[in-house]
Each structure stands twice: as C-alpha cells, then as structure tokens.
C-alpha cells in the first residue's frame, strides 16, 4: 500500500548548528608579504647554468651587480618580445640564454663565436662604464 503525504511537514525538534570552519594561520601577514615580494624579485633574476658558470670561470670573468642588472634588463626585453632562445652580446661576451627559464646556458668570448644555431633572437647590450 502507498501512503499519501498530506500537508506540510512540521518542523523538526532537532536543530542543527553550522560551525564556521576553523582557519589557522601559521605566520603573520607581514611575513607573508615579504615572502611574496621575494618570489617576485626572484622571478626576474637571471641565473647561470653550471656549464655557463664554468665557462665564465675559465675565462676569469666575473659579473658585478650592474652587469647582472643589465643582463636582466636584456632578458626582460627579449621576454616581452616573445623570444625563447637568444644570443646576448655583452661587451666581449656572447651568452646563449633560455629566456623562458631566465637562464644563461653557455658563455664564451665573442671572438670565439663562429656559428650560432637554435636561437630565435639576438640583442647587443652595452656595458656601462
């Protein structure tokens, strides 16, 4: 047999309370902002592969903060133009860089460079004196 439902159901005597989820924060907002800013800065830093660093060391070349800043600016310019693999001519250096990864892959003296393949762009950067 099927019973028919008639009329509205009376409210239940049971009451349910929803507790808001408890949220715990491990660190203060200030340290969160500092960490976020560090990550933004690190995204724009140019890094060097082990191979590139060995080549620079072999030639006795060290780059100071101004040099790195110039290279970072060049990589940013190339990234904005959609470059992927680029030749960066910097003073007497020829650097091959992965623009997407912001990493210099290899480094050599400009006079040692005879042929470059598998690049889609090139930029010449003047060293500030």
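Sequence proposed for the structure above (129 residues):
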């Amino acid at each position: 047999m099927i019973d028919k439902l008639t009329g509205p159901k009376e409210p239940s005597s049971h009451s349910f309370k929803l507790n808001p989820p408890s949220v715990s924060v491990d660190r203060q907002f200030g340290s969160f902002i500092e960490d976020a800013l560090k990550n933004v800065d690190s995204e724009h830093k140019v890094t060097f592969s082990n191979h590139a660093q060995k080549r620079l060391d072999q030639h006795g070349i060290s780059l100071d903060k101004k040099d790195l800043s110039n290279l970072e600016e060049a990589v940013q310019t190339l990234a904005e133009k959609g470059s992927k693999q680029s030749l960066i001519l910097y003073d007497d250096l020829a650097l091959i860089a992965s623009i997407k990864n912001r990493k210099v892959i290899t480094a050599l003296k400009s006079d040692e460079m005879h042929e470059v393949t598998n690049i889609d762009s090139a930029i010449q950067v003047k060293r500030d004196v």
